[in-house]
Amino acid sequence: MIDYQLGAIEARFADLIWNEQPIYSSELVKRCEKLFDWKKSTTYTVLRRLCEKGIFENNSGIVTSVISKEEFYSAESRKYVDETFEGSLPAFIAAFTSGKKLKENEIDEIQKMIDSFRREV
């Protein structure tokens, strides 16, 4: 299982890369200076950490993702459900929806997902 965690600022930085990739590291430095008020060294430090985690790679000054944004957040979500709800998706959904009225279209969407899972079994 993927075991990544990002802080709030790392997540914003990662989103920037996912949205702009492939991106030159020099362009990334310029964007981070404007968006986050970072120095060049800060950008490269955060980039290096995320590359070490296996999320991105920097080859010859071109930054790309190793895993997609969807793969990353899917793995993070599964880990959260596993750790917090002992892997029980129904327990997670019950907790998530308690005190919140679902809209009709949300119920329909969830039902479609359940129906597609039933066909796979």
Instruction: State the low-pLDDT regions, or none.
Output: none
Average pLDDT works out at 91
Q: What share of the residues does DSSP label as strand, in percent?
A: 5-15%
Order of helices and strands: HEHHEEHHH
Shape: elongated
Structural class: mainly alpha
Helix percent band: 55-70%
Task: Give me the side-by-side strand order of the main sheet.
Answer: 1-3-2
Q: Based on DSSP secondary structure assignment, what is the total number of beta strands?
A: 3
The largest sheet is: 3 strands, antiparallel
Oligomeric grouping of the chains: single chain
| N/C terminus separation | 23 Å
Spatial extent as radius of gyration: 19 Å
User: What is the count of helical runs?
Assistant: 6
Record keyword descriptors for this entry.
67% helix, three-stranded antiparallel β-sheet, mainly alpha, 121 residues, elongated
Overview in brief:
With 121 residues, the protein is mainly alpha-helical.
If you had to describe this structure to a student in words, what would you say it looks like?
It is elongated and about 50 Å long. A hairpin with a 2-residue loop joins strand 2 (56-59) and strand 3 (62-65). The chain has helices spanning 8-20, 25-36, 40-52, 69-85, 89-97, 104-120, and strands spanning 23-24, 56-59, 62-65. It contains six helices and three strands, in the order αβααββααα. By secondary structure, the protein is mainly alpha-helical. The protein has a three-stranded antiparallel beta sheet with strand order 1-3-2. The mean pLDDT is 91.
